[in-house]
Amino acid sequence: MVEPVETLAFDREHLWHPYTSMTEPTPVRLVTAARGCELEVDGRWVVDAMSSWWSAIHGYRHPALDAAVAEQAGRFSHVMFGGLTHEPAVELGRRLVEITPEPLDRVFLADSGSVSVEVAMKMVLQYQRGVGRAEGTRMLTVLGGYHGDTFDCMSVTDPVGGMHALWAGLLPQQVFAPRPPAYDAGPDAVAAWADAVRDLAERHGHELAGIIVEPLLQGAGGMWPYPVACLRVLREVADEHGLLLVFDEIATGFGRTGHLFASDLVTPDVLCLGKALTGGYLTLAAVLTTDAVARGISGSEAGVVMHGPTFMGNPLACAVASASIDLLLASDWRARVSGIGDRLTAGLQPLRDLPGVADVRTIGAVGVVQLDHPVDVVAATEAALGAGVWLRPFRDLVYAMPPYVAGPDAIDRIVSGITEAVKAG
């Protein structure tokens, strides 16, 4: 068995980590086991407040999910989706159509969240070509958003604060509306924002193809919740100008905001799902759209969606995704999410009085503390680990999106970890 020190040394010399320098890497910790909502990090069990970047909603080593992977692996682990199909993909498609709002009943199985957004944007552009609006090539979106790290995804991510300013001159130029008002903003703020969106749509309508946003909660762009009324405005604007409305629910889907999907409140034309889709077991994403959109795409010169990943519809991922959906729907997930949110709210509100804290906000099973300065990630992470919690702060935010299986004691530990991280960061 390789000693931990050797493993970490090789990692430091040879492996890139997300948004981390190869020549001056920040420290990483070694995970050797996982169970429930805990990780064994550097030999110590800590609560995972991040759900492995918001995906492991059922925690780790869940028997039902382990069994789904093992059972499918005993049959076959992968087969190309070109010209072939298999039961796990069909069953997952059936479940997704059943649990998402009508008329979203056409399913494209992608292999990551970023890829699903790329596919969604291709769908929008091909649809417009198919219905005779080939001049519509730009997307309307909002400041503060984040949609992934591939090129089209970067183009609809916040151009200044979204980590992709380096590529500004190379990306498609999209149309950005102001960030939506805060979730507790009054009707006047929503009305002013709506006027700005409508004005942009009027001025750019001839060149727009669609609208894309993260509904109810902007994730990596700032952990920013906003009112459902803003989604209704976007739906109206899309309909008025013949645009397709895309909801990126990769972070918000499967109950995270307290709704199974934000799309249950306002229905988009295209819906992207990922992260929690497989319960954090394997990479998989899905794009759902309508028969009308599918027919429009078929009317384009290509006649087909111009995308086909090698691991599209991977059987292992599809099998565990269906098991994860079944597990979620069989649980009292609404009560769990509500309980986590209530406990995070009660525990984090007192942090408003700490020096350096600019805001505290919660939505569903999400708790956020925003500082008035950039977080010292290394110091904040170390402080949280000292309290028995794994956190991954970014920019000016210390936040938690725990697994739904996290009980009151685990949430209290998370609050303690956030408190220590805020003090240190």
From TrEMBL:
Major localization class: cytoplasm
Catalytic activity: (8S)-8-amino-7-oxononanoate + S-adenosyl-L-methionine = S-adenosyl-4-methylsulfanyl-2-oxobutanoate + (7R,8S)-7,8-diammoniononanoate
Binding positions for substrate per the UniProt entry: W53, Y146, K275, G308, R392
Residues where N6-(pyridoxal phosphate)lysine is found: K275
Functional pathway: Cofactor biosynthesis; biotin biosynthesis; 7,8-diaminononanoate from 8-amino-7-oxononanoate (SAM route): step 1/1
Site features described as Participates in the substrate recognition with KAPA and in a stacking interaction with the adenine ring of SAM, chain residue numbers: Y19
Localization per Swiss-Prot or TrEMBL: Cytoplasm
InterPro entries: Aminotrans_3, Aminotrans_3_PPA_site, BioA
EC numbers, comma separated: 2.6.1.62
Top EC class of this enzyme: transferase
Keywords per UniProt: Aminotransferase, Biotin biosynthesis, Cytoplasm, Pyridoxal phosphate, S-adenosyl-L-methionine, Transferase
PROSITE patterns from the UniProt entry: AA_TRANSFER_CLASS_3
Cofactor(s) this protein cannot do without: pyridoxal 5'-phosphate
Binding-site residues for pyridoxal 5'-phosphate, renumbered to this chain: G113, S114, D248, P309, T310
Family as reported in the entry's similarity comment: Belongs to the class-III pyridoxal-phosphate-dependent aminotransferase family. BioA subfamily.
Function field: Catalyzes the transfer of the alpha-amino group from S-adenosyl-L-methionine (SAM) to 7-keto-8-aminopelargonic acid (KAPA) to form 7,8-diaminopelargonic acid (DAPA). It is the only aminotransferase known to utilize SAM as an amino donor.
The protein's assembly and partners: Homodimer.
Protein name: Adenosylmethionine-8-amino-7-oxononanoate aminotransferase
